[in-house]
Specification:
4-stranded antiparallel beta sheet; Helix Hairpins; Adenine-n6-DNA-methyltransferase TaqI, Chain A, domain 2; alpha+beta; 3 domains; 13 helices
Protein backbone atom coordinates (compact mmCIF):
# COMPACT_ATOMS: atom_id res chain seq x y z
CA UNK A 1 0.00 0.00 0.00
CA UNK A 2 1.39 3.39 -1.00
CA UNK A 3 1.97 6.30 1.33
CA UNK A 4 -1.19 8.32 1.98
CA UNK A 5 -1.04 11.79 0.47
CA UNK A 6 -1.17 14.80 2.79
CA UNK A 7 -4.09 16.78 1.41
CA UNK A 8 -7.17 18.37 3.05
CA UNK A 9 -10.74 17.12 2.61
CA UNK A 10 -11.71 20.37 0.89
CA UNK A 11 -9.61 22.78 -1.14
CA UNK A 12 -9.97 25.32 -3.93
CA UNK A 13 -10.18 23.58 -7.34
CA UNK A 14 -7.19 25.38 -8.89
CA UNK A 15 -4.77 23.77 -6.42
CA UNK A 16 -3.41 20.24 -6.31
CA UNK A 17 -0.47 18.30 -4.94
CA UNK A 18 0.54 17.42 -1.39
CA UNK A 19 0.95 19.77 1.53
CA UNK A 20 4.26 20.11 3.37
CA UNK A 21 4.82 18.74 6.89
CA UNK A 22 7.34 20.62 9.07
CA UNK A 23 7.82 21.14 12.77
CA UNK A 24 7.05 24.63 14.04
CA UNK A 25 10.65 25.01 15.26
CA UNK A 26 11.90 24.50 11.68
CA UNK A 27 9.87 27.48 10.48
CA UNK A 28 9.70 29.86 13.45
CA UNK A 29 12.36 31.29 15.75
CA UNK A 30 11.37 32.57 19.17
CA UNK A 31 12.26 36.09 20.30
CA UNK A 32 12.61 37.73 23.71
CA UNK A 33 9.45 39.02 25.40
CA UNK A 34 8.97 41.21 28.48
CA UNK A 35 7.25 40.35 31.77
CA UNK A 36 5.42 43.61 32.43
CA UNK A 37 2.23 43.39 34.52
CA UNK A 38 -0.98 45.35 34.01
CA UNK A 39 0.31 47.89 36.54
CA UNK A 40 3.14 48.75 34.09
CA UNK A 41 0.70 49.62 31.31
CA UNK A 42 -1.72 52.44 30.50
CA UNK A 43 -4.13 53.41 27.73
CA UNK A 44 -3.37 57.15 27.65
CA UNK A 45 0.13 57.75 26.33
CA UNK A 46 3.52 56.25 25.57
CA UNK A 47 5.88 55.43 22.72
CA UNK A 48 5.71 51.62 22.80
CA UNK A 49 2.61 49.44 23.02
CA UNK A 50 2.43 46.06 24.73
CA UNK A 51 0.50 42.86 24.01
CA UNK A 52 -0.59 41.21 27.26
CA UNK A 53 -1.55 37.54 27.30
CA UNK A 54 -4.91 38.32 28.95
CA UNK A 55 -5.95 40.35 25.91
CA UNK A 56 -5.06 37.46 23.61
CA UNK A 57 -7.46 35.31 25.64
CA UNK A 58 -10.29 37.83 25.80
CA UNK A 59 -10.37 40.32 22.96
CA UNK A 60 -7.82 40.26 20.14
CA UNK A 61 -8.81 38.92 16.74
CA UNK A 62 -7.00 35.95 15.19
CA UNK A 63 -5.43 38.34 12.68
CA UNK A 64 -4.17 41.25 14.79
CA UNK A 65 -4.58 44.67 13.15
CA UNK A 66 -3.43 47.35 15.59
CA UNK A 67 -5.74 49.95 14.02
CA UNK A 68 -8.72 47.84 15.09
CA UNK A 69 -7.61 46.84 18.59
CA UNK A 70 -7.29 48.56 21.95
CA UNK A 71 -3.65 48.07 22.95
CA UNK A 72 -2.06 49.60 26.09
CA UNK A 73 1.19 51.56 26.22
CA UNK A 74 4.17 50.70 28.38
CA UNK A 75 4.49 53.33 31.12
CA UNK A 76 7.01 55.93 29.99
CA UNK A 77 9.12 55.78 33.18
CA UNK A 78 10.08 52.14 32.57
CA UNK A 79 13.45 51.36 31.01
CA UNK A 80 12.98 49.18 27.95
CA UNK A 81 16.26 50.01 26.20
CA UNK A 82 17.52 46.47 26.86
CA UNK A 83 15.15 45.17 24.17
CA UNK A 84 16.77 45.30 20.74
CA UNK A 85 14.83 46.09 17.58
CA UNK A 86 14.99 42.39 16.74
CA UNK A 87 12.72 41.62 19.68
CA UNK A 88 9.98 44.10 18.77
CA UNK A 89 6.95 42.68 17.03
CA UNK A 90 6.89 42.47 13.24
CA UNK A 91 4.09 41.76 10.80
CA UNK A 92 3.85 38.01 10.25
CA UNK A 93 4.84 37.19 13.83
CA UNK A 94 2.81 34.80 15.94
CA UNK A 95 2.18 35.56 19.62
CA UNK A 96 1.10 32.69 21.85
CA UNK A 97 -0.41 32.96 25.34
CA UNK A 98 1.76 30.53 27.30
CA UNK A 99 -0.57 30.18 30.31
CA UNK A 100 -4.27 29.49 30.76
CA UNK A 101 -6.72 28.05 33.27
CA UNK A 102 -8.84 26.85 30.34
CA UNK A 103 -7.69 23.68 28.58
CA UNK A 104 -9.19 24.86 25.29
CA UNK A 105 -7.31 28.18 25.39
CA UNK A 106 -3.79 27.02 26.21
CA UNK A 107 -1.45 28.25 23.48
CA UNK A 108 -4.08 30.60 22.08
CA UNK A 109 -2.45 32.54 19.31
CA UNK A 110 -2.73 35.71 17.23
CA UNK A 111 -0.90 36.61 14.03
CA UNK A 112 0.21 40.21 13.55
CA UNK A 113 -0.94 41.42 10.13
CA UNK A 114 -0.78 45.21 10.56
CA UNK A 115 1.28 47.31 13.02
CA UNK A 116 0.68 50.65 11.28
CA UNK A 117 4.36 51.54 11.84
CA UNK A 118 3.86 51.45 15.62
CA UNK A 119 6.39 49.99 18.06
CA UNK A 120 4.99 46.97 19.92
CA UNK A 121 6.42 44.47 22.37
CA UNK A 122 5.13 41.04 23.29
CA UNK A 123 4.50 40.94 27.03
CA UNK A 124 3.80 38.88 30.11
CA UNK A 125 3.10 35.15 29.58
CA UNK A 126 3.53 35.37 25.82
CA UNK A 127 5.80 33.62 23.33
CA UNK A 128 6.84 35.58 20.23
CA UNK A 129 7.57 33.47 17.14
CA UNK A 130 8.95 34.85 13.87
CA UNK A 131 8.77 32.89 10.59
CA UNK A 132 11.54 32.43 8.09
CA UNK A 133 10.88 34.65 5.11
CA UNK A 134 8.81 33.32 2.18
CA UNK A 135 7.54 30.36 4.18
CA UNK A 136 4.16 31.64 5.42
CA UNK A 137 1.77 34.04 3.72
CA UNK A 138 0.59 36.89 5.94
CA UNK A 139 -2.73 35.89 7.49
CA UNK A 140 -2.48 32.14 6.90
CA UNK A 141 -0.62 30.99 10.02
CA UNK A 142 -3.11 32.62 12.37
CA UNK A 143 -5.83 30.32 11.03
CA UNK A 144 -3.50 27.32 10.82
CA UNK A 145 -2.86 27.64 14.58
CA UNK A 146 -6.63 27.50 15.16
CA UNK A 147 -7.02 24.25 13.22
CA UNK A 148 -8.08 21.15 15.13
CA UNK A 149 -4.87 19.20 14.51
CA UNK A 150 -2.59 21.98 15.78
CA UNK A 151 -4.76 22.79 18.81
CA UNK A 152 -4.83 19.12 19.81
CA UNK A 153 -1.02 18.91 19.61
CA UNK A 154 -0.64 22.04 21.75
CA UNK A 155 -3.02 20.64 24.36
CA UNK A 156 -0.99 17.43 24.49
CA UNK A 157 2.22 19.40 25.02
CA UNK A 158 0.74 21.62 27.77
CA UNK A 159 1.80 21.05 31.35
CA UNK A 160 0.16 21.79 34.70
CA UNK A 161 -3.06 21.11 36.57
CA UNK A 162 -5.01 24.19 37.70
CA UNK A 163 -2.95 26.52 35.50
CA UNK A 164 -1.68 25.08 32.22
CA UNK A 165 1.47 26.29 30.51
CA UNK A 166 3.34 25.76 27.27
CA UNK A 167 6.99 26.51 26.49
CA UNK A 168 8.75 27.55 23.28
CA UNK A 169 10.55 24.21 23.32
CA UNK A 170 7.32 22.26 23.41
CA UNK A 171 5.69 24.48 20.78
CA UNK A 172 8.69 23.85 18.52
CA UNK A 173 7.71 20.16 18.41
CA UNK A 174 4.28 20.90 16.93
CA UNK A 175 3.85 19.58 13.40
CA UNK A 176 2.49 22.09 10.89
CA UNK A 177 0.97 20.87 7.63
CA UNK A 178 0.57 23.59 5.00
CA UNK A 179 0.43 24.24 1.23
CA UNK A 180 2.47 26.47 -1.05
CA UNK A 181 2.19 30.26 -0.73
CA UNK A 182 -0.50 30.86 -3.41
CA UNK A 183 -2.89 28.38 -1.74
CA UNK A 184 -2.06 29.84 1.69
CA UNK A 185 -2.99 33.30 0.42
CA UNK A 186 -6.30 32.03 -0.99
CA UNK A 187 -7.20 30.28 2.28
CA UNK A 188 -6.24 33.33 4.35
CA UNK A 189 -8.36 35.64 2.18
CA UNK A 190 -11.31 33.24 2.38
CA UNK A 191 -11.33 33.00 6.18
CA UNK A 192 -10.64 36.72 6.54
CA UNK A 193 -13.82 37.41 4.55
CA UNK A 194 -15.78 35.08 6.86
CA UNK A 195 -14.37 36.81 9.95
CA UNK A 196 -15.27 40.20 8.51
CA UNK A 197 -18.86 39.04 8.02
CA UNK A 198 -19.01 37.73 11.60
CA UNK A 199 -17.54 41.03 12.87
CA UNK A 200 -20.19 42.98 10.95
CA UNK A 201 -22.93 40.88 12.52
CA UNK A 202 -21.45 41.37 16.00
CA UNK A 203 -21.26 45.11 15.37
CA UNK A 204 -24.89 45.09 14.23
CA UNK A 205 -25.91 43.29 17.42
CA UNK A 206 -23.97 45.77 19.56
CA UNK A 207 -25.67 48.72 17.85
CA UNK A 208 -29.11 47.15 18.34
CA UNK A 209 -28.34 46.58 22.04
CA UNK A 210 -27.18 50.18 22.41
CA UNK A 211 -30.32 51.40 20.64
CA UNK A 212 -32.51 49.30 22.93
CA UNK A 213 -30.73 50.62 26.01
CA UNK A 214 -31.29 54.21 24.89
CA UNK A 215 -34.94 53.59 24.05
CA UNK A 216 -35.58 51.88 27.41
CA UNK A 217 -34.13 54.88 29.22
CA UNK A 218 -36.43 57.25 27.33
CA UNK A 219 -39.52 55.07 27.70
CA UNK A 220 -39.19 54.44 31.44
CA UNK A 221 -38.27 58.06 32.18
CA UNK A 222 -41.50 58.83 30.27
CA UNK A 223 -39.64 61.03 27.81
CA UNK A 224 -41.38 58.85 25.22
CA UNK A 225 -45.07 58.03 25.78
CA UNK A 226 -47.35 55.80 23.75
CA UNK A 227 -50.94 56.73 22.92
CA UNK A 228 -54.08 54.66 22.80
CA UNK A 229 -55.52 53.32 19.54
CA UNK A 230 -57.87 56.31 19.58
CA UNK A 231 -54.92 58.71 19.70
CA UNK A 232 -55.61 59.78 23.28
CA UNK A 233 -52.94 60.00 25.95
CA UNK A 234 -52.87 57.29 28.59
CA UNK A 235 -53.40 58.20 32.27
CA UNK A 236 -50.47 58.81 34.62
CA UNK A 237 -48.29 55.90 35.73
CA UNK A 238 -48.67 54.43 39.20
CA UNK A 239 -46.01 53.24 41.64
CA UNK A 240 -46.61 49.97 43.43
CA UNK A 241 -44.57 47.52 45.46
CA UNK A 242 -43.87 44.36 43.50
CA UNK A 243 -45.41 42.21 46.25
CA UNK A 244 -48.70 44.09 45.80
CA UNK A 245 -49.07 42.96 42.20
CA UNK A 246 -47.20 39.64 42.00
CA UNK A 247 -46.35 36.53 43.99
CA UNK A 248 -42.68 35.64 44.18
CA UNK A 249 -41.26 32.15 44.73
CA UNK A 250 -37.86 30.49 44.92
CA UNK A 251 -36.84 27.24 43.26
CA UNK A 252 -35.68 23.89 44.55
CA UNK A 253 -32.89 23.75 47.13
CA UNK A 254 -31.97 20.22 46.08
CA UNK A 255 -29.18 19.52 43.60
CA UNK A 256 -31.06 17.81 40.78
CA UNK A 257 -30.23 14.48 39.19
CA UNK A 258 -30.48 15.09 35.46
CA UNK A 259 -32.07 12.64 33.01
CA UNK A 260 -32.02 12.41 29.23
CA UNK A 261 -35.67 13.40 28.78
CA UNK A 262 -38.26 14.68 31.21
CA UNK A 263 -39.21 18.03 32.73
CA UNK A 264 -37.10 21.09 31.77
CA UNK A 265 -34.91 22.44 34.57
CA UNK A 266 -33.61 26.01 34.31
CA UNK A 267 -30.47 27.43 35.92
CA UNK A 268 -29.09 30.88 36.60
CA UNK A 269 -26.49 30.32 33.85
CA UNK A 270 -29.25 29.96 31.25
CA UNK A 271 -30.92 33.19 32.34
CA UNK A 272 -27.71 35.24 32.41
CA UNK A 273 -26.65 33.90 29.00
CA UNK A 274 -30.21 34.04 27.60
CA UNK A 275 -29.56 30.53 26.30
CA UNK A 276 -32.40 28.03 26.62
CA UNK A 277 -31.35 25.79 23.75
CA UNK A 278 -29.28 23.34 25.80
CA UNK A 279 -31.87 22.64 28.49
CA UNK A 280 -31.31 19.97 31.14
CA UNK A 281 -34.10 17.72 32.42
CA UNK A 282 -35.27 16.13 35.66
CA UNK A 283 -37.64 13.20 36.09
CA UNK A 284 -41.39 13.73 36.40
CA UNK A 285 -41.38 12.12 39.86
CA UNK A 286 -38.80 14.60 41.17
CA UNK A 287 -40.67 17.43 39.49
CA UNK A 288 -43.92 16.51 41.22
CA UNK A 289 -42.19 16.19 44.59
CA UNK A 290 -40.20 19.43 44.36
CA UNK A 291 -42.92 21.58 42.84
CA UNK A 292 -45.90 21.10 45.11
CA UNK A 293 -45.77 24.83 45.84
CA UNK A 294 -45.28 26.35 42.38
CA UNK A 295 -44.46 25.46 38.79
CA UNK A 296 -42.88 27.62 36.11
CA UNK A 297 -45.10 28.26 33.11
CA UNK A 298 -45.68 30.52 30.15
CA UNK A 299 -46.01 34.20 31.10
CA UNK A 300 -43.85 33.91 34.23
CA UNK A 301 -40.55 35.74 34.83
CA UNK A 302 -37.33 34.18 36.09
CA UNK A 303 -34.93 36.60 37.79
CA UNK A 304 -31.45 35.88 39.12
CA UNK A 305 -31.09 36.56 42.84
CA UNK A 306 -27.77 35.01 43.91
CA UNK A 307 -24.37 36.09 42.57
CA UNK A 308 -25.53 37.83 39.44
CA UNK A 309 -28.63 39.70 40.61
CA UNK A 310 -31.43 41.27 38.60
CA UNK A 311 -31.17 39.59 35.19
CA UNK A 312 -34.70 38.71 34.10
CA UNK A 313 -36.11 36.36 31.47
CA UNK A 314 -39.74 36.46 30.34
CA UNK A 315 -40.94 32.93 29.58
CA UNK A 316 -42.86 33.44 26.35
CA UNK A 317 -43.09 29.79 25.36
CA UNK A 318 -45.28 26.92 26.52
CA UNK A 319 -43.48 25.04 29.27
CA UNK A 320 -44.11 23.21 32.52
CA UNK A 321 -40.73 23.44 34.21
CA UNK A 322 -38.67 23.58 37.39
CA UNK A 323 -35.83 25.91 38.40
CA UNK A 324 -33.03 26.26 40.89
CA UNK A 325 -32.98 28.31 44.12
CA UNK A 326 -30.61 30.92 42.65
CA UNK A 327 -33.58 32.12 40.62
CA UNK A 328 -36.71 33.91 41.74
CA UNK A 329 -40.01 33.22 40.00
CA UNK A 330 -42.30 36.20 39.53
CA UNK A 331 -45.65 34.61 38.80
CA UNK A 332 -47.81 35.96 36.00
CA UNK A 333 -50.81 38.03 37.08
CA UNK A 334 -53.67 39.90 35.43
CA UNK A 335 -52.46 43.02 37.27
CA UNK A 336 -49.50 43.54 34.93
CA UNK A 337 -48.05 42.59 31.57
CA UNK A 338 -45.23 40.15 32.32
CA UNK A 339 -43.25 41.10 29.23
CA UNK A 340 -43.44 44.75 30.29
CA UNK A 341 -42.29 43.89 33.81
CA UNK A 342 -39.35 41.84 32.55
CA UNK A 343 -38.13 44.93 30.67
CA UNK A 344 -38.79 47.21 33.64
CA UNK A 345 -36.58 45.00 35.83
CA UNK A 346 -33.60 45.99 33.63
CA UNK A 347 -34.07 49.72 34.29
CA UNK A 348 -31.69 51.70 36.48
CA UNK A 349 -34.46 52.53 38.94
CA UNK A 350 -35.37 48.90 39.61
CA UNK A 351 -31.74 47.76 39.64
CA UNK A 352 -31.00 50.40 42.31
CA UNK A 353 -33.93 49.09 44.35
CA UNK A 354 -32.49 45.56 44.14
CA UNK A 355 -28.97 46.74 44.93
CA UNK A 356 -29.84 48.51 48.14
CA UNK A 357 -31.72 45.42 49.37
CA UNK A 358 -28.99 42.95 48.39
CA UNK A 359 -27.01 41.22 51.15
CA UNK A 360 -23.51 42.25 50.10
CA UNK A 361 -21.68 40.60 53.02
CA UNK A 362 -22.80 37.18 51.82
CA UNK A 363 -20.70 35.23 49.34
CA UNK A 364 -21.98 35.05 46.78
CA UNK A 365 -24.14 38.12 47.40
CA UNK A 366 -27.88 37.50 47.34
CA UNK A 367 -31.28 39.08 47.77
CA UNK A 368 -34.12 37.45 49.70
CA UNK A 369 -37.56 36.95 48.18
CA UNK A 370 -39.18 39.32 50.65
CA UNK A 371 -36.76 42.10 49.72
CA UNK A 372 -37.52 41.62 46.04
CA UNK A 373 -41.18 42.15 46.86
CA UNK A 374 -40.36 45.49 48.54
CA UNK A 375 -38.99 46.92 45.29
CA UNK A 376 -41.12 49.60 43.70
CA UNK A 377 -42.47 49.22 40.18
CA UNK A 378 -43.77 51.98 37.88
CA UNK A 379 -46.90 50.77 36.13
CA UNK A 380 -48.59 52.44 33.15
CA UNK A 381 -52.14 51.36 32.33
CA UNK A 382 -52.23 47.80 30.97
CA UNK A 383 -52.83 48.87 27.33
CA UNK A 384 -49.72 51.09 27.48
CA UNK A 385 -47.75 48.29 29.14
CA UNK A 386 -48.67 46.06 26.20
CA UNK A 387 -47.60 48.67 23.65
CA UNK A 388 -44.26 49.14 25.41
CA UNK A 389 -43.69 45.40 25.68
CA UNK A 390 -44.55 44.80 22.01
CA UNK A 391 -42.27 47.63 20.86
CA UNK A 392 -39.28 46.37 22.86
CA UNK A 393 -39.96 42.78 21.81
CA UNK A 394 -39.52 43.77 18.15
CA UNK A 395 -36.03 45.03 19.01
CA UNK A 396 -35.35 41.86 21.00
CA UNK A 397 -36.38 39.76 18.01
CA UNK A 398 -33.87 41.62 15.82
CA UNK A 399 -31.12 41.14 18.42
CA UNK A 400 -31.92 37.43 18.75
CA UNK A 401 -32.05 36.98 14.99
CA UNK A 402 -28.64 38.61 14.63
CA UNK A 403 -27.24 36.40 17.39
CA UNK A 404 -28.58 33.35 15.55
CA UNK A 405 -26.84 34.53 12.38
CA UNK A 406 -23.57 34.91 14.32
CA UNK A 407 -23.84 31.42 15.78
CA UNK A 408 -24.63 29.87 12.39
CA UNK A 409 -21.70 31.67 10.77
CA UNK A 410 -19.34 30.51 13.51
CA UNK A 411 -20.52 26.90 13.18
CA UNK A 412 -20.09 27.13 9.39
CA UNK A 413 -16.57 28.52 9.83
CA UNK A 414 -15.68 25.76 12.29
CA UNK A 415 -16.81 23.10 9.84
CA UNK A 416 -14.77 24.66 7.06
CA UNK A 417 -11.71 24.84 9.32
CA UNK A 418 -12.00 21.10 9.95
CA UNK A 419 -12.14 20.30 6.24
CA UNK A 420 -9.72 22.86 4.78
CA UNK A 421 -6.81 22.08 7.09
CA UNK A 422 -5.11 18.70 7.48
Amino acid sequence: MGKQKIIPQMRFPEFEGEWVNKKLGQIYKFKITNSLSRADLNYENGSVKNIHYGDIHTQYATLFDITKESVPYINHELNITKYSDENYCQEGDLIFADASEDYNDIGKCIEIVNLNNEKVQSGLHTLLARPEKSIMAIGFAGYLMKSGNVKLQIQREAQGTKVLSITSGRLSKIELIFPALPEQQKIASFFTAIDQKISQLKRKKTLLEQYKKGVIQKIFSQEIRFRGDNGQEFPRWEKKLLRKIAKIYDGTHQTPNYVITGIPFYSVEQVTANDFQNTKYISEDVFKKENQRVKLGKGDILMTRIGDIGTAKYIDWDVNASFYVSLALIKHSDLFNSNYLSHYISTQNFQKELWKRTIHVAFPKKINLGEIGECEVELPPLPEQTKIANFLSVIDDKINHTQTQIEKAEVWKKGLMQRMFV
